[in-house]
Amino acid sequence: MTLHDKFGRQITDLRISITDRCNFRCVYCRSADPENYRDHDEILSWPELDRLAVIFLKLGIRKIRITGGEPLVREGVEDYIARLHALGVEDLSMTTNGHLLADRCERLIAAGLRRINISLDSLDPAKFERITRTKSFNTVMHSIDVAQKSQLAPAKVNAVLVRGINDDEVEAFANFARETGVIMRFIEYMPLDADRHWTRGHVVPAAEVHSRIHARWPLEQIPHERSETARKYRFADGAPGEIGLIAPVTQPFCGHCSRIRLTSDGKLRTCLFSKDDHDLRALLREGATDDDLSIYISSVVHEKEEGHRINEPGFIQPSRTMVFIGG
Questions:
Q1: How far apart are CA 246 and CA 232, in angstroms?
Q2: Does residue 314 carry a pLDDT above 60?
Q3: For residues 113 and 271, which has the higher predicted lDDT (pLDDT)?
């Protein structure tokens, strides 16, 4: 059985948020004010996550990315990855802020993790502190170095560009890729911040990023799968490293979307910007059978939105912010 929506897109990718907790408070994601986390019994238990993984795999999911919050703050993530690996997940990856990665990198690899995305929004320690509201710059840089020396290399390093905050670092980030061999990915700022400060003026278009890097170090495009979110480039002079551009605001890729999301509290979301989410936790805890869950998931995915509508009049920002959806 495979998952398809009414627009003919096959759904093969699932992002699973295993926690809403995070040890960073990045300005483009979270509020600086204290927030009330969901109680632990509101978050899906490991057995509930295991059961849903089996169902999703039978429905044709092939790629799973573990997200949060910050996934490494939840105890047991290595064991969970090992169980997913044993189930036969073809492509098993994780997104992390890197704060806890260095000491656990080898255990994650042994469990079956095959790819890693690490957030890094500035190469300047003081600016990094302002963006993340932490003093973890050196820790994150060490984690990137550890990942680059491991089987997870090349690590994908994600920078969310925000005009007036870190858009002056485009060339520095590109040079960082050339020096370290990482895949440096630039992500357009999306309207998912907790403080609701997003405006279109804060967005640094991917085309601008490409133009600036290409003027300094000519780029050559790398072929990519239709469903991939990033447009990929190598340096024409043969230098190591790679550039990825993710442009959900200025160049939406909704027409080829193959992704759905499961939030930490058990809500299925068919788009990052869905106005509604669908409660799998309630079904799990009210005695639904695996067949019941499969039928429900298939029906929800069939109604997946055609696109995210950011660029349409009347766009409404999701009530949930990024940290509660899963990055």
A1: 9
A2: no
A3: 113
Rounded to whole angstroms, what are the CA distances from 150 to 101, 119, 230, 264? 12, 18, 23, 29
Give the residue from 63, 166, 77 showing the smallest Cα distance to 119: 166
Provide the residue ranges of all domains of the chain, joining segments of one domain with +: 3-325
> Could you give the percent of the chain with pLDDT greater than 70?
86
Which residue from 108, 100, 95, 107 is spatially nearest to 155, judged by alpha carbons?
95
CATH T-level fold of 3-325: TIM Barrel (3.20.20)
Question: Whole-prediction pTM value?
Answer: 0.90
Mean predicted confidence (pLDDT) in 240-267: 87
Q: Is the pLDDT of residue 323 over 70?
A: no
Cβ–Cβ under 8 Å, residues 68 and 301: no
Distance CA 82, CA 44 (A): 18
Grouping H, G, I as helix, E, B as strand and the rest as coil, residue 277 is coil
**Residue pair 205/234 in contact by the 8 Å Cβ criterion:** no
Q: Over 80: is that where the pLDDT of 38 sits?
A: no
| Ramachandran sector of residue 151 (left: φ over 0; alpha: ψ -120 to 50; beta: rest) | alpha
Q: Please check whether residue 119 is in contact with residue 26, taking contact to mean a CB–CB distance below 8 angstroms.
A: yes
Relative orientation angle of helices 206-216 and 170-180, to the nearest 10 degrees: 60
Q: How confident is the model at residue 325 (pLDDT cuts 50, 70, 90)?
A: low
10 Å Cβ neighbour count for 289?
9
